[in-house]
Structures are given as C-alpha cells and as structure tokens.
Design goal:
It is a single chain. The chain is mainly α. It contains 8 helices and no strands. Helix 3 runs antiparallel to helix 4. The radius of gyration is 39 Å and the shape is elongated. It starts with a helix and ends in an 11-residue tail after the last helix.
Length: about 260
C-alpha cells in the first residue's frame, strides 16, 4: 500500500509538471494562431472572439488526453480558464477596434459619395445643407453603430469637424465648377473661415484662379477662332466674286454664261 501511495504521488507530481509545461507551449501556439486569425479576419471581425475561444477550448480538450491523474486534470482546467481569460480579453479588444474601423470605413464610403454629389450638383449650397445635416446626425445618434464605434465624445467631435470641412471643400469645388469668379469672391469674404483651415482655403483660391484663367483663355481662343472663320468666309466670298467678274466662273469653278 505504501508503495502504491508513493507511485501515485510520483505520478501526480509528474502529471502536474507536465501540465505546467503545457502552459508555455499553449500560450506560444495560441498567440501565433491569434495573430494569424487577426490578419485574416473579415471586416469588423464579427466572429473573432468566438473563434478565438473555440481555438483555446479545442486545444485544451486535446490536452486532457495527455493528463493521467485527477490532480493533473484539475490543474489543466484551472490553466484552461486562465488562458481562456487572457485570449478573451485580447480578442475582445481586437474585435472592438475592428468594429470601430469598419464603421468608420462604411461611413467614409457614404460621405465620399456625398462629396461627389455636392461638387457636381446644380445647386451645391442646397445639396450640402441636407447631406451634411444627415451625416452629422449619424455621428451623434446614440442608438447608431457609428456612435457606439466612436467611443469618446472627442472622437465624434473630431469626425464631425472633418466631415464638415470635406463637405465645405466639395461645396466650393462645385461653386468653382459653376462660376469660379463667384466662388473666389465668396472665399475672400471669410464665409468659410470656420469650416475650412487656411491652407485648404488657399488651395481652393488657387483652383478658382486657375479656372478663371482657363475661362479667359478659352474665351480668347473662341474669339480668335471666330475671327479666323470670319476671315476665311470673307476670303471665300471675295474669291467667288473675283471668279465671276474676271474669269466667268461661279464659286464651284463652273463657267458662267455671259
């Protein structure tokens, strides 16, 4: 009986040591697996936490077969809970960040469409009023995914400022497309001083000046072309009169009866 007890104690000690050794190997392998799962996660990583927890449990289910004593199996379950807790926190942090990133990406896609709509609109001023109001409301909608994805008031305010500036720039771009002279005048009145930073304002002023210059160049080219065509017409008409009077031919070169 004493020998049996000694053998049991020895087996338990060896089993416990084996389980303790398993921890470092499990942490290393699961960390590598977690990094791989993060790199391959879909946008928003919707199942990342669940998949990570499943991977931990699958590993420890297999390790149970490598333990031979009750004490070893108990220690293995304690270790499973610790490792599971570690990777649950890690994967939850990653998933939360991924959700926020996807929400911001989806929002950016939506606003990019708006920017094109505003800049190409027949009435950019009217377009920006409705579209900007809608997007700002989404940022501050407490029941919306964007509000939950942006964890702090500072991040929401920053996004609202960013969107407002982009929409204002699209408005001015639309104005330049319609009438660059009017756009330049409005820029110089400081109408957009609160929504455009100075560098962006200067950039748009340069665009307006370039558009004005292009319009003037096009107008001069049109006048030159009209004058050229008028000259050609006069020349053709003069040649026709000369041919008829002196050569007895019409404008097509055919002989004209005297």
């Amino acid at each position: 009986s004493d020998i049996g007890d000694i053998l049991q104690v020895r087996e338990e000690r060896e089993d416990v040591t084996r389980v303790q050794t398993m921890r470092s190997a499990s942490m290393a392998d699961l960390t590598k697996l977690s990094m791989s799962m993060e790199s391959e996660a879909a946008a928003g990583a919707p199942d990342h936490v669940e998949n990570t927890r499943q991977a931990v449990n699958d590993r420890y289910d297999k390790l149970k077969d490598e333990t031979t004593t009750k004490k070893g199996k108990q220690l293995l379950e304690v270790q499973r809970a610790e490792v599971l807790g570690h990777f649950t926190i890690q994967s939850s942090t990653f998933q939360a960040a991924a959700v926020g990133k996807k929400v911001k990406s989806d929002f950016t896609t939506s606003t990019d469409i708006d920017l094109n709509t505003i800049s190409m609109s027949r009435n950019p001023d009217a377009a920006i009023q409705s579209l900007l109001k809608f997007q700002i409301a989404k940022i501050y909608d407490k029941d919306g995914v964007l509000f939950r994805g942006l964890k702090t008031a500072e991040s929401r305010d920053a996004l609202a400022r960013e969107v407002t500036e982009k929409y204002t720039a699209a408005l001015v771009t639309g104005l330049i497309r319609k009438n660059p002279t009017v756009a330049l005048e409005r820029l110089r009145t400081n109408e957009f001083a609160k929504t455009l930073d100075p560098e962006k304002t200067l950039e748009l002023e340069r665009s307006a000046k370039t558009a004005i210059s292009s319009e003037k160049t096009a107008a001069r080219a049109k006048i030159t072309e009209e004058e050229r065509l008028a000259g050609v017409a006069r020349e053709v008409e003069g040649n026709a009169i000369f041919n008829m009077m002196h050569l007895g031919k019409d404008e097509n070169g055919n002989a004209v009866a005297p």
